[in-house]
Structure formats: C-alpha cells, structure tokens
Amino acid sequence: MSRASLPFLLVTAFLFAVGMSIVFPLLPALVGQYVSGREQATVVGLLAALYAFLSFFSGPVLGAVSDAYGRRPVLLLSLVGTAAGNLLFGLGGSLGLLFLGRFLESVMSGGMGALMAYVADTTDEADRGAVFARIGATVGAGMILGPAIGGALAHFGLGVPMFAAAAIALLNALWGAFALPESLPPRERHLEFSAGHLNPFTHLRAALAHPPVRRLVTVSMLFTLPLPLLQIALPILAQGSLHWSVAQVGTLFMVAGTCDIVGQGLVLPRLLTRFGERRVALSGLVMGAAGLLLLAGLSAWPSAGLLYGAVVVFSLGEGMFTAAFNTLLSLAIPAGEQGRVQGGAQALGELTQVVGPLAGGGLYARFGGAGTFSAGAGLAVLALMLLAGRTTPAASRVAPGPGLS
C-alpha cells in the first residue's frame, strides 16, 4: 500500500462513520420543523433505520461495481454522493428533501465494501490485520466524534453540520482524485457486469456459496446481533437500575468508543502479530460474551463499577473480533470477488442493525435486562462455538503456531 493511500482510506472511513452519526443529535430538531408529537418520533425512527436498510442493498452492488471497474472510481463516487446527500439534508425545506438526502447518503455508504476490498488488494497477509485494526479504530472515532461535531456546529444553524460534512467529503474526493492509485489491475477485474448485477441478493447468494465465507459471515452476524442492545437496552438498564441521568448514560458510550479506539489502534496490532487472527477473534468473542453476562447481572447487583467494567470488557472484545474477522474474511474470499463479498458482509452487518434494535426492544419489554443481555451472551457463545469448531483455510495461513487447529 502506498504512503498516500492509507491516510486517504482512514479519512474516508472516518467520514463514512461521521456521516452516519453526525445526524443523531440533529434529527429531532430537524424533523420537528415539519411534524410534532408521536409522528415526530416515528419519522426520526424511519430516518435512522433508512441508513442501515439501504446500506444492506447498496453494499454488495457497489462492491460488485468495484470488482468490474476498479476500487478508485467507486470510492470517489461514494464521497461525491455522500457530499450531495449531506447538502440536501442540510438544505431541508421539506420532509421529502430530508428523506432524499438521507437516501442518497445511505446508498453511497455502500462504498465501505470497496474500501475494505482496496485494503485486501494492497496489503499482504502479515500486515492486513493491523491495517484493518487502524480502520476500525478510525470508524470508532467517527462514531464518537460525529454526534459531538453535529451538536457543536448546530449552534450556528441546524444545517451547518451537514454543510461542513459535505465540504469535507468533497475535499476528500478531490484529494483522492490526485493521490489515490487504483488497486485492482484490469487483468484481475470481473468485466461481465450487467443489469442483473444490480440485484444485491445475487451477490449475497454468490458470496455465501463459498463455505469458508458463509461460516465466517454467520459467526459475525451472531455476534453483531447483540450490538444494538448497547444502544437500545443499555440506557434503559442504566436509568432503571442505577437511576442515571442522560449525561451519565452518555459517558458509557464515550468509554465504549475510547476502548474501541485504543484497543484497535494501539493494542490489537501487537496481539495480531503475536497470536494470529483466529486466536484474537476467538478471544474477542469470549470477552464479548463475558461483557454481556456482566450486563445481565446488573439487575441483580446494581453497581456503577460493574456497569463500566462490563462495557469495557465488551467493547475491547468487540474491537478485537471485528479487526480479526475482517482479515480472516479477506483471506477466505476467492480471487476477483473481494468487492462484492466485502460489500455483502458489510450489508449483512447493516441488516443486523435493523433487526437487532427491533428484537432487543421486544426482549427487554418482556424479559428485562437480565433476560435480554443473557440472550445476547448466548448468541456470542454460539458464534464462539462455530468459529472454534473448524479452522478455515484462511485462518491456517495467518495464524501460525500451536493450538490453531
């Protein structure tokens, strides 16, 4: 990977994350200009869910486009489209424009699969995990800073944060146009691209036809399904068990994001070098399950120390698993299919962000915090058992040493 490519990819990943999270503090006020009461909450929920829903469809398609025409044009198009979506969202003027802007930005976020494929194209097996870890840390930073940036710039007007995000995305696209080389040579591209390739389910079906890929993606979905519990159930649990204020609940998310950044950016590259991707992924699943079990115990033993400790353990485990999984997946993907398979994996991850909150809310309403987080821990244990059951061909190449079979 060239020296110019990695900074560009990190900034691009940061912008994708900020693009999703910068609107969180703005949505109620923006929507409140057009509707109020219960209808306001419904529209806010629809706008929030729209991002994950459309990313599910666009990820495999843009990934397949990058397999056919190269990663560079897809990444640049995604940035320009993201800027246009942010601009429309900032201009507002009607609910229709808000949805149109969010629609465009959501579709362009599918370029994250092409970004992952770019990394797979330009890194060797020994260094890939460390690069994925840095990207993961950057995404974590974007998710933390996005709402803070949105809240701070909103003092100058509700549209200002979106205008700023649009300007930065355009500048990044301009930077990439001059500094980003293509990573996929023409001889390695799939040039048989037709209208049928615009169907995302075609790419998902083809990607999941490969047993190692199917197994890894299943492991990831089992583990990521409980992640929305931290967004939905954790605030309710903290307020109900410890009587915390909104500001105190906010510190939990800051702690989680900080652990994600520190773990993936500083600690994880050393762990990957020493233990290999498969061991690190397994350890991450163990820590994730342990963190969820600790949260399940909060109802019986309410304690701020237990709550913070559980969030730290889970967040570090989630970061360890995610970076290691990305590397294992990239090595399991057949040659020439990095784009669509990476896009498909990103899309299925977005699907869990739609299903997870719905399931988590229903579980919490019926079984409370103990039952909800215990169910999440059960899914993490299933993921652990599936990954530990058999060594994938990719894992055997990147995790040398005893005890990996």
Descriptive overview:
This protein has helices at 5-21, 27-32, 37-69, 71-91, 95-108, 112-122, 125-153, 160-179, 200-208, 211-224, 228-242, 246-275, 277-296, 304-332, 338-389, 393-398. With 405 residues, it is an all-alpha fold. The chain folds into two domains: 1-178, Up-down Bundle (Growth Hormone, Chain: A), CATH 1.20.1250; 199-398, Growth Hormone, Chain: A (Up-down Bundle), CATH 1.20.1250.20. α4 packs antiparallel against α6 and α10 packs across α15. Mean pLDDT is 80; it is low at 392-405.
Topology:
Elements: H1 5-21, H2 27-32, H3 37-69, H4 71-91, H5 95-108, H6 112-122, H7 125-153, H8 160-179, H9 200-208, H10 211-224, H11 228-242, H12 246-275, H13 277-296, H14 304-332, H15 338-389, H16 393-398
Helix pairs in contact: 1-7, 1-8, 3-4, 3-5, 3-6, 3-9, 3-15, 4-5, 4-6, 4-8, 6-15, 7-12, 7-14, 9-15, 10-14, 10-15, 11-15, 12-13, 12-14, 13-14, 13-15
Membrane topology: Multi-pass membrane protein
InterPro entries: MFS, MFS_dom, MFS_trans_sf, Sugar_transporter_CS, Tet-R_TetA/multi-R_MdtG-like
Transmembrane segments: 41-62, 74-93, 99-119, 131-154, 160-180, 216-238, 244-268, 280-301, 370-388
Number of strands: 0
**Net shape:** globular
Averaged pLDDT:
80
Strand content: under 5%
The computed structural class is mainly alpha
Specify the CATH class of the largest domain. Answer: Mainly Alpha
Low-confidence stretches: 392-405
Distance between the termini: 31 Å
Question: Major sheet, described briefly?
Answer: none
Number of DSSP helical runs: 16
The CATH topology of the largest domain is given as Growth Hormone, Chain: A
Order of helices and strands: HHHHHHHHHHHHHHHH
| CATH architectural type of the largest domain | Up-down Bundle
CATH superfamily of the largest domain: MFS general substrate transporter like domains
Q: Rg from C-alpha positions?
A: 20 Å
Helix content: over 70%
Q: Tally the structural domains.
A: 2
Transmembrane segments: 41-62, 74-93, 99-119, 131-154, 160-180, 216-238, 244-268, 280-301, 370-388
GO cellular component, one term: membrane
Family: Belongs to the major facilitator superfamily. TCR/Tet family.
Domain Major facilitator superfamily (MFS) profile: 5-395
